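Standup notes
- DV: blocked on the single-chain target, sequence here:
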Amino acid sequence: MKRVIRDLAQELADEQGAATAEYVIATMAAVGLAGLLVSILRGDAVRSLLTGLITSALHVGG
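- DV (later): unblocked, structure below
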């Protein structure tokens, strides 16, 4: 019985920090996606498209 408990304790010790590493990977993926979106939205084509959509929406309502 002591060996089973010791083996279980060893397994649990090996997994320590795994959740933190998963959070770091997910956070880095989110930061990368945010950076990609910022670089896309800073482009002139996207800016003119969004400006056109906003202007069109304001003219329809007014």
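- Follow-up: The two ends are 79 Å apart (CA to CA).
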